Task: structure prediction
Amino acid sequence: MARIGRTRAAFRVAAVLTSTVAVGIIGTINPASADDDPPWKVIATGLDNPRQLTFGDDDDDELYVVEAGEGGAGPCVTGPEGDEVCFGMSGAVTKVDLDHKYKAKRVLKGLPSVAGEGGANALGPSDIAFDDSKFALTIGLGADPAARPSVGPGGRALGTLVGGKIYKNKWSKITDLAAFEAAKDPDKAGPDSNPVSVIYAEDDDDGYVAVDAGGNTLLSVSKKGKVKTLAVFPDVMVDAPPFLGLPPGTKIPMQAVPTSVVEGRDGAYYVSQLTGFPFPEGEAKIWRVKPGNKPKVYAEGLTNVTDLAVGPKGKLYAVELAEHGLLSGSPGRVAKIDAWDDDHKTVVGGLVAPYGIAIDGKTAYVTTGSVAANEGQVIKFRL
Result:
């Protein structure tokens, strides 16, 4: 059996660890939280490994949720954690109509997806951005791009940025981000690609800005598909966890694993990070990137961040997949970011596998249950 190489981005590690908490809870309680009286409203259910979400272009009444899918019948290969993962065209984008009783409909289907047993812990579609009537969508990979042929012809779309018109249910490749990583390897750590986040960037040649979590990079993509590196996020040395059995005080390298990009009111890009193994509490950062300059730390003291959104008065809000670190098995939260203090305010806590966030005025929408098929939700709450 072919083997997909271990992704430095560690997204499948993150998903597997988180699912030890989430999957055991999903199906018996609200996947959003164990709270009997939660401060939110569930507006969509039955999603397959939901990831990021965004509003339609100039239409805050339409919320688009990206689903990584549930894999399929195969080909099946050995995944990065030694488990069997199977390929299928089950990735999707669901539109939630916020003006009509939250009616949900899959408007884009048949996207590449790779998932474990039961459709859990999928890699596939991750984020969507709109430019008028057209969309751009990242499709994850989580491996060396050379591994794509192992899952058959459909695997060629893994690790790419695709686009089209949402209601035609058709898409085509804008550019191959994994091929760029294989050719350029900006962080010089060996090819590994997992495109996860994308925004439309009007000031950047009317193209897109994307995050490659596997390559540890922020990338610019022109409308013609030309890719260039805007920033590379560095490894840092952290304390080795005790269970590794290393001498006390031993340091090991931890990768940045960038996860999401938003454009701030100041025109700079703000990039969150999940962090790689050992996923320590408080070691995730938010980086500020001005093209042409080295990235600078904007905020510290966060843990395993998967998405960012700009809220009222330009404040940043972050989703933490696991508030106390993935190895702790803790639930996640939404936090309001304080650039001057590491004590970021919890807006909503106790969330099971939260992932994406979108904000309209003082209302936030968050995906939860992001590690399981058919169990994902979108919740709504006031900031």
Summary: The helical segments are 11-25, 177-184. The mean pLDDT is 88. The chain has two helices and 27 strands. The longest helix spans residues 11-25.
